[in-house]
Each structure stands twice: as C-alpha cells, then as structure tokens.
Amino acid sequence: MIRKIENKTQGFETRDGAGVRLVRVLGNGTKDIYDPILMLDSFDTENYDDYKGGFPEHPHRGIETISYLKHGRMLHRDSMGFEDEITDGQVQWMTTGSGILHEEMLPESDRMLGVQLWLNLPQKLKMVKPHYQPLKDLPRVEGQGFHLDIISGSYMGTDGYQAPNHPLTFCAIEFTDEAEFNLEVEEDEVVILFTLLGSVDVGGEILEEKTAATLSKGDKVSFTGKQGDIVLFLKSIRLDEKVAWGGPIVMNSMDEIYQAFKELREGTFIK
After folding, report:
1. Whole-angstrom Cα distance, residue 176 to residue 34?
2. Measured distance CA(250)–CA(269) in Å, rounded
3. 57 with 101: CB under 8 angstroms?
4. 193-238 residue pLDDT tens
C-alpha cells in the first residue's frame, strides 16, 4: 500500500540563539506526532545579519542534534575539546547524552540553507557518553531525475553513517528533472518528509515548501518533484516513551530536568 500524507506541519518564522532568524517546523507541540524527531529548524537566507550572532555556548542533555547544510558554514566548539567546521553538503552529528556544552557559530556565506533536527535518545541511553561526529563526504546515489545524499542509514545497497543509538535513515533528495521517487519501507516504520526547497506531490496532495509531514502506514513511499526541489526523507521507529522537555534538555521526567539544571548551577553538569 502506498503511503499518503497523514499530518502536515508548516514552519513559522522565529529567532533563536543570538538572534538567528530561522523557520521552526517541529517542536514541543509536535513531539508525539513526529516521534522520535523532537525538533526541526530550517535556515534559508542570503542576509548575514539574519544569522551572524550564531548560537553561543549552551548545554544539551538527552538528545542527538543533527545539522545538515546544503549551503553555508557552521563552526562547532564543545566541552569535550572538539572544534570543527562543516560547509556545503556536510553534516555534524552530536550525541549530547549525559551532557555537553557547545556553541555553533555561523560564519558569513553566500547563502545559509539547511536544517537542524533533534533526535530523541531512548530512555536507557539518555546518559550515554557524549560524542561528536562530522560527516563530510556523504555517499551519493544517482536516480532517474534526482540524486540522493545519504546522511544516515542505507539506500539501495549504499550505506551512510549508521546512527549509533536509535535507527534513523536520513537522506537529502534533490530533483534534477521532473521525476518520481519510490521506496519500499516496513509497515511499522515512521516516515517523515520535509520540503527544504520547492514542493512535491505525495499521492495527489501537495506538500508545500518548508513543511514537514508524517505519512500513513504502508509498505511504499512515492512522491513526485521537479527540477530544484529538495526533500529531506527520514525513516525511523517510534520510541513511545514519556518526554520531559526543559529548553535544551530532554529527559523522561521533570525530576530529571530539575536535576540537570541543578547540576548546571553547581558546575557538575559535565560528567
């Protein structure tokens, strides 16, 4: 059975960090619908003033942050001592686990276009050791009328980065002509689409630009796009666990949130 759009969420413009202009698509209000994806922010601007403040040092615990840049630059520094920069077509994958302090600064570029999403960690792995993983040479598969960059998981026998804590297939699909994309999936898998640029037709329903959607159950995903459209494809398994959300910290109970902020005040947050 071909999957159809079940839920659609259109992003809204806001600012975060030190005044960075972005489109917030997913957040606290959508966490149950898009489980295990907690948050999705999209960046799309050619104006340096929209992002020059970046995201100064802040804490995280209990999640993985995944930043994909189609265009732009992002400079990462963290409390583990890592310093790294990603640019066009690259990814930073950060497992925050038991706790990390980091900053993401955004040097000037011709265009800032990309996303950051938060992948929830399973309860049993909330306090895993933090880890930073840059992905700078994404495997590319050429299709008929599109090419597909594999951020994580696998596609048609080609492997990308294997998500270390919870299964996630994450691909960026760019249409080079009017074409149809088809993929067989398992019935119990969560499938999420996000239109980074342009719009696509999913079973006769248009998914507009900067819009996320979950798809209904079924064993096949099919949608059509045209030249220049870019769609992010995500496939995972629901966690169905309680979520307690306190700003940059996501745990399973409010007691754990209070404990995390207590540790931040006392200087014991980093394990």
Report:
1. 29
2. 14
3. yes
4. 999 999 999 999 999 999 999 999 999 999 999 999 999 999 999 9
Under DSSP, the state recorded for 259 is H
Domain boundaries, the chain: 5-266
Cα Dmax for the chain: 57
**Beta carbons within 8 Å of 258's beta carbon, 6+ residues apart:** none
The residues facing 234 across adjacent strands are 170, 192
Provide the β-strand partners of residue 101: 59
64-89: average pLDDT: 98
pLDDT score recorded for residue 215: 98
* Rounded distance between C-alpha atoms, residue 74 and residue 98, angstroms: 24
Nearest 10 degrees: Cα torsion 254, 255, 259, 265: 60
The pTM for the full model equals 0.97
Give the separation between CA 95 and CA 164, rounded to whole angstroms: 9
Token representation of residue 180 = 């149809």
Please name which of 230, 187, 189 lies closest in space to residue 211, comparing C-alpha atoms: 230
| CA distance linking residue 137 with residue 35, whole number of Å | 28
Out of 3.90.420.10, 2.60.120.10, 3.40.109.10, 3.30.1490.110, the CATH code matching 5-266 is 2.60.120.10
Q: Nearest-5° angle of CA 244, CA 192, CA 198?
A: 125
Q: Which residue, 227, 122, 126, is CA-closest to 174?
A: 227
Q: Could you write out the DSSP letters of every residue in 197-266?
A: ES-EEETTEEE-TTEEEEE-S-SEEEEEE-TT-EEEEEEE-------EEETTEEESSHHHHHHHHHHHHH
Q: Which residues pair with 205 in a beta bridge?
A: 202
Rg of the chain over Cα atoms, rounded to whole angstroms, equals 18
Tell me the two tokens of residue 241: 């666990």
Report residue 125: phi and psi, to 5°: -120, 10
Q: What distance in Å separates the CA atoms of residue 109 and residue 88, rounded to the nearest whole number?
A: 10
